[in-house]
Design brief:
- The protein folds into two domains: 5-94 and 171-253, 3-Layer(aba) Sandwich (Rossmann fold); 101-168, 2-Layer Sandwich (Gyrase A, domain 2).
- It has nine helices and eleven strands.
- The chain has helices spanning 5-15, 45-57, 68-74, 101-115, 140-150, 173-184, 198-210, 228-233, 243-253, and strands at 21-25, 59-63, 81-84, 89-90, 121-124, 129-132, 155-160, 163-168, 188-193, 214-221, 236-239.
- It has a seven-stranded mixed sheet, sandwiched between helices.
- The structure holds magnesium ion.
- Magnesium ion binds next to loops.
Length: 255
């Protein structure tokens, strides 16, 4: 497929000296097409190959709601950094998030019992619990109501594409991006993402632009599922099918 020439030009502009460049890249819906269930998601081999080239020529980080172990398993590429669990787990040393395991377990059980629907998919991650209602979008409202009632103090609800996730306060992809920027001092930054959690990362990018960095926030379209926050906060939208080509163009321009 051919990349939109205007987008290709923006990527070349990002890749020009002075560097270094930092690419902060979401996983599900961005590198991996959205799958019917989280365990079915895969990053295509050609995308992994492009990430390997990119990681050899720039700082590249996977910034994701997946937990660290799952993200590393899905993107087994040397040289990548990871900000996982919505920024609560990082591949570099950072202050550990509070351990809320017992409360997350209890919440998972209580919500599952309340909704009593085989279509609800409960995914217990290292630092959070995600309630997926992709198989039954009508569960959204009862799920929201159940979480409003059952959520313990100190946990927050993060909405995503046909998922509501309960996790400890703190983290966030904006904080993850700023931590990466402080670590690598990039002169150019690319952020790529498709969901509500990516919008704060895009807005953090704009703050770095005001400080003189060259930045590009690319929203990845999920069609009708694309949240308005993503459209508002990004510089341009691209199709998920074009993400690999965009990253390949960036890697080629960095050579
Ligand atoms: Mg995503």
């Amino acid at each position: 497929m051919t990349l939109d020439p205007a987008l290709a030009a923006r990527l070349r502009e990002l890749a020009r000296p002075p560097g270094p460049l930092l690419a902060a890249i979401d996983l599900d819906g961005t590198l991996a097409p959205i799958a019917p269930a989280p365990e079915l998601a895969r990053v295509p081999p050609e995308t992994l190959a492009v990430l390997e080239r990119l990681a050899a020529r720039a700082h590249a980080a996977i910034v994701t709601g997946r937990d660290l172990a799952a993200a590393r398993a899905l993107v087994p590429v040397a040289g990548l950094e990871f900000a996982a669990s919505h920024g609560l787990e990082t591949s570099w040393p950072s202050a550990p998030a509070p351990d809320r395991a017992a409360e997350l377990d209890a919440l998972a059980d209580a919500v599952a019992a309340r909704l009593a629907s085989p279509a609800l998919r409960v995914e217990r991650k290292a630092r959070s619990v995600a309630f997926h209602h992709r198989a039954a979008p009508a569960l959204a409202e009862p799920l929201r109501a159940a979480l409003a009632e059952l959520l313990p103090a100190g946990l927050r609800v993060q909405p995503g594409r046909l998922v509501l996730e309960a996790l400890p306060e703190g983290g966030g992809k904006d904080a993850a991006l700023l931590a990466l920027a402080a670590r690598f001092r990039p002169r150019a930054l690319l952020a790529l993402g498709d969901d509500r959690t990516d919008a704060p990362m895009f807005r953090a990018l704009r703050a770095l632009r005001a400080d003189g960095a060259r930045t590009l926030a690319l929203g990845v379209s999920g069609g009708a599922e694309t949240p308005p926050e993503v459209v508002d906060a990004c510089d341009a939208l691209l199709e998920q099918a074009d993400v690999t080509a965009a990253l390949a163009a960036l890697a080629a321009a960095l050579r």
